[in-house]
Structures are given as C-alpha cells and as structure tokens.
Amino acid sequence: MIEPLSVLAGWAIPKIGESLLEIVSGQGWDSLSQALSKSDVDKAIKAGEAAVKEWEKQRDPSQRLFFHARPDGWNGVNRFLGDYFTNSAVVAELQKPLLNQGKPDREILITVFQQQAEEHNIKLNQDSIKPWIEKFINAYFQQTDTYLKFQVAKQDYCEQLANWFDDVKFAGIAVPGQEVEKSEKLAQIFVMPDVVEDVSTAGAWERDWLAAGSGETSEIALLAKTTGRKFLAEQLLSQSQSRRVVILGAPGSGKTTLMSYFAVMLAQRKPEVLGLDGDTDWLPILIRMRDFAINLDKSLIDYARVFAENTMSVKPLPVGFFEHWLSDGRALILLDGLDEVAEEAKRNDVVRRIENFLGQFDRNRAIITSFRLASSA
Predict the structure, then answer these.
(1) What is the tens place of the pLDDT at every residue in 68-82?
(2) Alpha-carbon distance 109 to 98, whole Å?
(3) What tens digit of pLDDT does each residue of 273-303 get?
(4) Residue 190 and residue 297: Cα distance in Å, rounded?
(5) How buried is 363 (Cβ within 10 angstroms: 0-12 exposed, 13-18 middle, 19+ buried)?
(6) pTM exceeds 0.70 for this model
(7) How far apart are CA 226 and CA 221, in angstroms?
(8) Which CATH class is domain 190-370?
(9) CA 48 from chain center: how many Å?
(10) CA atoms of 32 and 128, how far apart (whole Å)
(11) Phi and psi (nearest 5°) for 68?
(12) Residues carrying CATH 3.40.50, the chain
C-alpha cells in the first residue's frame, strides 16, 4: 500500500508560467497584463498548489484526491498533472485572468481532469475532485488578480519616480528677457563618472584617514593605493560580482545624481543601460538616508511607501507591493548618503537597519553611497 503522506508531499504542479505567457502573447492582451512576468504566473500556480495541499492536510488520508495513485512513473500523479496543465483546454482557462476575462471555468477544468485521469488509468477519489479544483482556481485567480493590481501600481510608481528624479532644475539671477529657472532631463545632461573597483592594499587606518579627510586630494591618495579596475559608473552592476556595492566619493562628486540616474533608468524600463537583464521586471527603490533618519519610527519599506505616496504623489500602493519584487530579487535597492546621517548613535542605528533589511532580502542588488564607510562596529 502507498504511504499517503509521501503521495501528498511527492506531487507538484509543473511550472508553466513561460508557456502560458507565450500563448497569450499576441492575443490582444493589454499592456498591463503584458507586464506580468513568468515569475508572477509561476507564483500564482504555486499559490494554487499550496492551497490544495493545505486543504488535503486537513482531510483524512483516505479522502485525499490521489490516495490510490503513485506519485511517479508512467501512471503517476506527476506525469498526469504535467499532461493536465499543458492540455489546451486547461491552458485556455488558465489564461483568462491574464487576459482580464475573469476566473477559469470550474466545470471545464473538472471535465478535463476526469478525462485525463481515465486516459492515465489513475484512480481518483471522485468526491474530492470538485473541491480540489475549486481550491486551486480560487488561489490562482486571487494571485493573478493581485499581481495585475501590482502592475497597475508599478506603472504609476515608476512614472512618478521618473518625474520626481528626472527633472533637474537650474535657477539663476533674474535678467530681463532670460529664463530665471530652467529644467533639463537628467539623462541629457548627466556626465557619467568613472569608478575604481577597490581591491585595495590600503589598510583600515588609511580608510579611517580617508573618512576624516575632505576634498579630492584624499580620494586620489586612496586610488593610488588600489589595484582595481576603472570603468564607467553605469557599468557598475555588470562589472561587479557583488550583490552589495558601496560607492565612496567626496561631497559634490555626483553620488546622489548617479543614484537618481540608476533609479530613472529602471523606472523608464532601460535596465540594459545599467547592465541588467532586459527581460526581468525590475523595480527601483531609492531612499535618501538623511530623510529616513528622521523617520526611524518606520521600517525602510514603510518609509519607501510613505515617501512614494506623500512626496512623489503615487496613488496608494497595494499591501505587499515592495515585498513582491524584493522577495524575488527583482528590486534594485539604492540607499543614498549614509554619511549624511551626522549623529553617530543614529547612524549606527541606521546601519543596523540596513544590514537587517539587506539580510532579509538578500537576493537583490544594492548600492549604498557614502563619503566615509559607516559601521555599526
């Protein structure tokens, strides 16, 4: 006799996100649905699987759908599920939420399920088919609906972020017949700086000396000690193998403008400019540490939300918005001006919060700018 718990743990719904997106592509789906990624769809499928397995755990083993079936082999559950979820009728139903056509039809999915089981000679607990399909559909639809809402929010977020950081204003003394204030786009006027990868022979005391110094002289002194490569700052993410990068530079050296440039490029869907994968749905998260330091009653995510909604005039973001991208490693975290948190105790608190945040979402790339290396030690 088959051990029921092994059957429950052994079956899995195949990842079909990529094939689903390929099928619906070109069928008139709107730009919103088109923004859904393979990861989004696979997560929705996984949510359906998790809902079904949780439901089955609460049932007597003999009442579970696949109690009499083996997980593997020609007539196994996994092969059956693979064929079922790639069946054209099933795919047509699963793509409905992706095309904003409502929930999949339960009766069609049940009918195909029974037909496929007969073809595979798999014995099912008939009383469990309907609730099994319902649990899957409800969780799958809820997730795809949520992800569509995330994409609506992301479009607004990125538009507002680009508007906020892309316009550079110049103000001057009023002269008759001339503009007092002029605005230019960041990408049109920004001169990309060089950076040097620090695989330095400089010791800790030299770094401390750099932190205590000021101006260009101290920076040159450090660069003279390095053995790293020199390249344009926009190549930083493609040239560096580290997920976390610290950019050191003197005040006025362009660190803040560089971070704005990175955020705007992602907001405008130009990740290739930064050496990032063009097929990934990236989300930029830019936080000025000086502003965060006066809002320490909030977490970094909560502050990012408040800044977006209250300062950038982004429409209210859905719950879990930032976490959706952070959990998949699809966010670029930009933390600007750590040295601008002047009070040492507060700066140490901020550093600890950053370390915890980056540790929690360690699949993401992160860039921190500072004039001196801040440490909680």
Answers:
(1) 877 776 678 888 888
(2) 17
(3) 999 999 888 999 999 999 999 999 999 999 9
(4) 35
(5) exposed
(6) no
(7) 9
(8) alpha beta
(9) 21
(10) 36
(11) -95, 5
(12) 190-370
